[in-house]
Write a structure and sequence with these properties.
Layout (H helix, E strand, L loop, with lengths): L1 E4 L15 E9 L2 E16 L2 E13 L8 E5 L8 H8 L2 E3 L14 E3 L9 E5 L8 E2 L21 H18 L7 E6 L1 H15 L7 E5 L16 H16 L12 H22 L5 H15 L3 H6 L6 H7 L6 E3 L7 E3 L9 H9 L2 H15 L13 H6 L16 H10 L4 E7 L7 H10 L4 H4 L2 E6 L9 H15 L3
Helix pairs in contact: 1-10, 3-12, 4-5, 4-13, 5-6
Pfam families: Peptidase_S10
Keywords: Carboxypeptidase, Glycoprotein, Hydrolase, Protease, Signal
Organism: Seongchinamella unica
């Protein structure tokens, strides 16, 4: 990678202390050297035609092909997560250092070249939703009154307004850079996958954006599947094949030999999950105790837990409990986001799961924070007094459903919009991807829901599913990142 200094960008943010950056770099790729303009700056967003917020972004624009070159907008999830994960873990030309199997490299804080970046086939724009990264509300409302009090009332921390803000940013970016004729793609991870599924319909229906393809990474489709309720079934069915895969990875499945192919083990688990297991969950005590306990004992053998624990839990094992229980005799916790990884349990005598959750969620945050500060400030010359919000827990907790018609009986879901978007946009293609060992957004939810979606064969043929080794951020595994890159390339170059 080489670089040339360019002038800083004209600052779009209202705060004069915020100064964007712009430089030209040369990145290597399989197709040759790519002279790339990298821009990091703020884009003003409006409410009632008045500036209301400034959305921060980082754009990688290769200086060739002009408007004919594809452009992909990328966003992460949370809600409350910035775009550092896709930018510095997956698609960008510079990433944080992981070993071959996705483990953090001790003491490594710098960025390394990414041989599996996407710039060889698409320009990239990484978006930080309002309240994440350096994206903020304006400090004054349109009427001049203070806008900093009551952050929990942030209008952008809501399902519908969030989607509209993303589309507003995209429209303005395409206009500013004269890219309306470029093939257009959108990539979203986790809650960003929910965003992508919703926008499948809304891009054209409400925002006049013609999107060629969606890349939906480790998505959550409907929030009822994130519940630990004893009275629903889908979330437990979704989790079971993932638990089985993790247990088999650690050679803890008792119902198969350790050398049984993973594909065979998981295929059997999927069939069991939608048959005997689902029936036992739905029936409850309407099923004979002996039969129900027999099914739950089989579950225990499949997922490597004690039969008594599974029976007492009525077959409903939360991902936090699974993380603590699977390797508790070794005082190890399996990672919620990648169950193939483990860490020491600092509190093996305690019964709550907080240690497991904290370890899984925050262990790599500092690495990503160091990466963004190095890249934005040291390399691109971004100047701001703001702290970069890698993961804004306040936004996550304050997120609202601003679409609901009733206070009861309405949880945010995306499948209807996805189904409508794929059906009506007959040129759009979709790539849905997961990591096998992710317990937070289990792959089987996508597989099951897509089979339930009633998409017509023509529409279903335009939706491709891929399952990789690894977890929620499977791309931290070197080989899986390469495979994912090839699959994204195939999608984009199919147009």
């Amino acid at each position: 990678m080489s670089e040339n200094n360019d002038k800083p960008t004209e600052n779009a943010a209202a705060n004069p202390a915020n100064q964007g950056g712009k430089k030209t770099f040369t990145f290597s790729s399989a197709s040759g050297e790519l002279v790339t303009e990298v821009i990091a700056d703020w884009m003003p967003l409006h409410i009632d035609d008045k500036p209301a917020a400034d959305m921060f972004y980082t754009a990688y624009l290769v200086k060739e092909d002009g408007v004919q070159r594809p452009i992909t907008f990328c966003i992460n999830g949370g809600p409350g997560g910035s775009s550092v994960f896709l930018q510095f873990g997956c698609a960008g030309p510079r990433i944080i250092a992981f070993d071959e199997a996705g483990h953090e490299i001790s003491g490594a804080k710098g960025l390394v070249d990414n041989p599996s970046h996407w710039l060889g086939f698409t320009d990239l724009v990484f978006i930080d939703a309002i309240g994440t990264g350096y994206s903020r509300l304006r400090t004054e409302k349109a009427d001049g009154s203070d806008n900093t009090a009551g952050k929990k009332d942030n209008p952008y921390w809501a399902v519908k307004k969030d989607l509209a803000s993303i589309a507003e940013f995209m429209r303005k970016f395409l206009t500013c850079h004269n890219r309306w004729q470029s093939p257009l793609f959108f990539a979203g991870e986790s809650y960003g996958g929910y965003r992508a599924a919703r926008l499948a319909k809304l891009f054209s229906r409400e925002f006049q954006l013609v999107v060629n393809g969606l890349i939906i990474v480790s998505p959550i489709w409907q929030f009822r599947d994130a519940s630990d309720s004893d009275y629903s079934t889908s979330q437990w069915v979704n989790q079971l094949p993932v638990y089985v895969g993790i247990a088999h990875k650690h050679a803890l499945c008792r119902h198969v030999d350790a050398d049984t192919p993973m594909s065979d083990v998981v295929a059997a688990a999927e069939q069991f999950a939608i048959s005997d297991y689902a029936l036992a969950l739905v029936a409850g005590t309407m099923m004979d105790d002996d039969e129900r306990h027999s099914i739950f004992t089989r579950v225990a053998d499949m997922i490597g837990l004690e039969a008594r624990f599974v029976i007492e839990s009525e077959g409903r094992i939360t991902f936090g409990d699974f993380a603590r229980e699977l390797k508790k005799h070794d005082h190890r916790i399996t990672d919620l986001y990648d169950g193939s990884l483990t860490s020491g349990d600092a509190f093996p005598n305690r019964t709550n799961n907080e240690a497991a959750i904290t370890e899984a969620l925050f262990n790599s945050m500092n690495l990503y924070a160091a990466a963004i500060y190095q890249w934005q400030r040291s390399e691109l010359g971004v100047a701001t007094e703001l702290e970069y919000e890698v993961l804004n827990q306040e936004a996550h907790k304050a997120w609202k459903n601003d679409e609901k018609e009733f206070d009861l009986f309405q949880l945010a879901e995306s499948m209807d919009d996805f189904r409508a978007g794929v059906t009506t946009n007959t040129a759009m293609k979709v790539l849905v991807v997961h990591g096998r060992y992710d317990t937070v957004t289990p792959y089987f939810a996508s597989k099951r829901l897509l089979h339930q979606s009633r998409l017509k064969p023509e529409a279903r043929a335009r939706v491709t599913q891929k399952l990789y080794e690894g977890g929620h951020m499977f791309y931290s595994w070197h080989e899986q990142r390469r495979l994912f890159c090839e699959d994204v390339k195939a999608l984009i170059q199919s147009f």
